[in-house]
Write a structure and sequence with these properties.
Elements: H1 2-9, H2 13-35, H3 44-53, H4 70-86, H5 90-101, H6 109-126, H7 129-141, H8 144-161, H9 166-170, H10 177-190, H11 202-214, H12 221-225, H13 242-265, H14 272-301, H15 313-329, H16 332-355, H17 363-370, H18 377-384
Protein name: Integrator complex subunit 15 isoform X1
Biased composition (Low complexity): 426-441
InterPro entries: INTS15
């Protein structure tokens, strides 16, 4: 390996980087083919070559690093794009991409992240699907802090620096839905609405809502494609963007009201941003509820209903704590409607998530979590019903009952029927007996029997989940 390094030192930076890339392709490709199972791992000497000649972290501090010019860096990005596009074996592509951009915890990681952001941004611009698929896997396996950094680069490139190129990012969903699913998860982790700067830009919000409204199943792609038993990396992104999008929908009325308050305090109003986004958040809230219903089907098919909590109770607790703090910041007299809207959305999401098995918790846990929140009628109804426990008996899909109490019969009593209300002395009639002739009226035809009707045929509890999102 020392001979290869000495050879690379005599080359210009671009040529040396190309040579290292092709060396990786040969060594890892042959190792993958011979191993048959499991991804091959780069040896330490090859990792050193990658860091020194692609990411320009010198092995010897006494040797000045060879820096690429902007033109050379662009040429290297084009070489990488061409390589990943032309490589026909997806396994080899994934191994090479991981070898290049897996973070090692050393000083080369900053260079890796800079190169990765530029490569993925270029792949979006020229629609290089193989790179986007590799980037989706990288987002799934990397720590959320690095994923958020990549998301920020892409948002800056396509929403801030060059807004006219935003449609390019918007149209990438049809080319690589899996990448877009992971990107949504990353941007919801980036924009957590903790401050005015952490509120998603209107163009980004519009793009996400457009993607999810057109195909809500997009949010479940990572979960559906993940093999059973796969363990997530410690500190990684959530397996679905549902928790992040739920945070957006619930906190949006409060966050924008806080922004208006700060703007008025600073002497300039800025109300149009929140007003223009209200309908988008309403559409997003509806889509999230629809995805919960789709999720129930998937969990049932995989025999995971009641055994896999897609929404973690700890994440829900954090959201409620954030909502509580936001409510305390606002004046309830001036923001009462916004507070109730946020709580209505939270209550609906909790109700649907529990009814579909996406959230598993006890009623006591739910009441404890909601104890610091202001009163809300819908939230009180959700807390009053029993919630599936994570201990003891297995999950039952109908465990979370409907609110309406059952009736003994769907038919009203005969003695209150409006057509017979004037006959006070009329005896009680059996629902299946024929009426006797009543003088001076003409005889009545007998009742048809109701054997085909179930005692609860028209009871609301027999219907599917009937609630609609609160706007």
């Amino acid at each position: 390996m020392s001979d290869i390094r000495h050879s690379l030192l005599r080359r210009d930076p671009l040529s040396a980087a190309k040579e290292v890339l092709y060396h990786m392709d040969i060594s890892l490709g042959s190792a993958l083919q011979s191993s048959g199972a499991g991804a091959p791992v780069l040896d330490k000497s090859t990792i050193d070559l990658v860091e020194e000649f692609i990411f320009h972290v010198p092995k010897d501090r006494s040797v000045p690093p060879k820096r690429m010019s902007c033109v050379q860096e662009l040429q290297l990005l084009e070489i990488m794009c061409s390589y990943f596009q032309e490589q026909s074996k997806d396994a080899v592509r994934q191994v090479i991409f991981s070898a290049l951009f897996s973070l090692q915890g050393n000083k080369a990681d900053e260079s890796r992240m800079a190169m990765l952001g530029k490569l993925v941004s270029m792949a979006i611009a020229v629609c290089r699907v193989p790179i986007l698929e590799c980037a989706a896997t990288w987002l799934q396996r990397s720590h959320s802090a690095w994923c958020v950094r990549l998301a920020r680069v892409l948002v800056d490139d396509y929403c801030t620096l060059v807004p006219s190129s935003f449609s390019t990012l918007q149209n990438i969903c049809s080319a690589s839905p899996r990448f877009c699913c992971q990107l949504i998860t990353a941007v919801t982790a980036l924009y957590d609405m903790s401050s005015e700067d952490m509120t998603p830009p209107p163009s980004l919000l519009e793009m996400v809502v457009g993607w999810v409204t057109e195909d809500p199943r997009l949010l479940l792609l990572t979960l559906i494609n993940m093999p059973l038993g796969t363990s997530l990396p410690l500190g990684g992104l959530d397996v679905t963007p549902l928790m992040g999008l739920l945070r957006w929908c619930v906190k949006a009325p409060l966050a924008y009201q806080r922004g208006r308050k700060l703007s008025l305090t600073n002497g300039h109003g800025e109300q149009e941003k929140g007003v223009g986004c209200e309908e988008l958040y309403s559409k997003l809230h509806l889509s999230v509820l629809q995805v919960f219903l789709m999720l129930q089907v998937h969990l049932t098919e995989q025999n995971l209903l009641g055994r896999l909590a897609v929404l973690q109770l700890e994440s829900v607790a954090v959201l409620m704590e954030e909502v509580s703090r936001l409510v305390e910041e606002l004046n309830p007299l001036h923001a009462a409607s916004h507070i109730q809207l946020a709580l209505d959305r939270l209550a609906q999401a909790l109700q649907v998530a529990m009814a579909t098995g996406a959230l598993l918790c006890t009623r006591e846990d739910l009441r404890t979590l909601c104890s610091r929140l202001p009163h809300n009628n819908l939230l009180q109804l959700v807390m009053s019903g029993p919630v599936q426990s994570t201990h003891g008996a297995p999950y039952q899909s109908n465990f979370y009952p409907h609110i309406h109490p059952p009736r003994s019969s769907p038919l009203p009593p005969h003695n209150t029927h409006p057509a017979l209300s004037t006959h006070n002395t009329h005896p009680a009639l059996s629902p299946h007996a024929a009426h006797p002739a009543l003088s001076p009226h003409r005889p009545l035809t007998p009742h048809a029997t109701h054997s085909s009707l179930s005692p609860h045929a028209f009871h609301p509890a027999a219907m599917t989940f009937p609630y609609r999102p609160i706007r």
